[in-house]
Write a structure and sequence with these properties.
The chain folds into two domains: about 1-180 and about 360-370, 3-Layer(aba) Sandwich (Rossmann fold), CATH 3.40.50.2000; about 180-360, Rossmann fold (3-Layer(aba) Sandwich). With about 375 residues, it is α/β, with parallel strands linked by helices. Helix 8 (about 155-165) links the parallel strand 6 (about 150) and strand 7. It is globular. It starts with a strand and ends with a helix. The chain is built from 18 helices and 13 strands. The strands form two sheets. The chain has a seven-stranded parallel β-sheet with strand order 3-2-1-4-5-6-7, with helices on both faces. A six-stranded parallel β-sheet has the order 10-9-8-11-12-13, sandwiched between helices. Helix 11 (about 215-225) crosses helix 16 (about 325-340) and helix 14 (about 290-295) packs across helix 17.
């Protein structure tokens, strides 16, 4: 049995962490690998199976800021070096930039070192003038030293080449995995009494994601101002822009049409009760929320942003694309969908079928093939 060392910043509530959780918990990983999970920080929200050996590179928790994390890097690097020397893994795999850099810099000659990029580096770092040269330099120096780079989408692969100058022959694409059967089961659960009135009246749009500029909730709120009054919006998620988004709704007299639901353990039961899922993001890597909504069997509308939605939709075959950062076009696409019940049904069925291409065991087999 091959020995895997899997390195990630933490197992908090993010999309990369969810993908890691799905892969490590898959049947094919369990049967083929002795798994060691190394967390750079002591943050765990996802359930970790008993057969996985857990190691920690620091005692930092969710309260730790950027300065503390930066100060802990030498200690983290030392811990990773020592663990690799002790375990002698057949392959070391990492998710997310900080873990990727540490994984590469602690590799010995002959080590099989696989790093995985989960976001388009140009849109994540390339538009921020102060940090762009730092991140570009780090990626350009460190990433080519890896044995292989796994990008989560074709768009992310292109971003690595364009932004950091990494040769495309070193990059392979493996999409995120999803437990579509579990999502379907959770989608069938009843919603709480406090939300039933909102979801039973009118046409419901729903969005799930962190309340940040990247996720573009402001764009769908602006689009809502151009839609009939019976169209409402539910937003699931937390983030630094929650107050600003509430103020935007109040300014546009939308308080009765927009429901902020905070973080929800099971968002799928609300998605399945909605008319359509809307992803207005300014950029993505491979948007988990979009595929998860498709697995609920609802039609999906997404901004044609870099990167992910067009790949997932296979053009416009399995979902509806709107112009990126364009509330007017987003509103038009929402009207186009909602005005025709047959169109709603057709896109819902297409979305559900497409989501099965990302079923966890299928993706786990592809991932395993690339790392061994």
């Amino acid at each position: 049995m091959k020995k895997l060392l899997f390195i990630i910043n933490a197992m908090g509530g993010g999309g990369a962490e969810r993908a890691a959780s799905q892969l490590l918990g898959s049947k094919v990983f369990r049967e083929k690998l002795e798994i060691h999970l190394l967390l750079l920080e002591n943050k765990v929200k996802y359930e970790i199976p008993d057969y996985i050996n857990i190691h920690y590179a620091s005692d930092l928790n969710e309260k730790a800021g950027r300065l503390l994390k930066a100060a802990a890097l030498p200690r983290m690097t030392g811990t990773v070096t020592a663990l690799k020397k002790n375990l002698k893994p057949d392959v070391s795999v990492s998710f997310l930039t900080r873990a990727n850099i540490i994984n590469v810099m602690t590799a010995s000659p002959g080590d099989r070192t696989i790093i995985s990029e989960r976001n388009d580096p140009f849109n994540t770092y390339g538009k921020k003038s102060l940090i762009k040269p730092i991140h570009k330099g780090l990626l350009s120096f460190c990433y080519p030293k890896a044995t292989k780079i796994i990008a989560v989408s074709e768009g992310v692969a292109k971003g690595l080449t364009d932004f950091a100058g990494i040769k495309s022959k070193k990059i392979v694409v493996v999409n995120n995995p999803y437990d579509t059967d579990a999502i379907s089961a959770l989608a069938g659960e009843e919603i709480e009494e406090q939300y039933k009135n909102f979801f039973s009246e009118g046409k419901i749009l729903i969005n799930v994601g962190r309340l940040t500029r990247q996720k573009g909730q402001d764009i769908v709120i602006h689009a809502l101002t151009k839609l009939p009054s019976d169209v409402k919006l539910a937003i699931i998620g937390e983030g630094e822009l929650e107050s600003d988004l509430n103020n935007l709704c109040e300014k546009n007299s939308l308080k009765n049409r927009v429901l902020f639901m905070g973080w929800q353990k099971n968002p799928f039961k609300y998605i399945s009760k909605s008319s359509a899922f809307v992803l207005p993001s300014r950029w993505e890597g491979f948007p988990n929320a979009l595929v998860e909504a498709m697995a609920c069997g609802v039609p999906v509308i997404a901004a044609d942003c870099p990167s992910g939605p067009m790949e997932i939709f296979e053009g416009d075959k399995n979902g509806i694309l709107a112009e990126s950062e364009n509330p007017d076009d987003l509103a038009k696409k929402i009207v186009y969908l909602l005005e025709d019940p047959q169109r709603i049904e057709r896109y819902g069925k297409a979305a559900l079928l497409r989501s099965t291409d990302f079923q966890v065991e299928k993706i786990a087999r592809k991932f395993l093939k690339e790392i061994l």
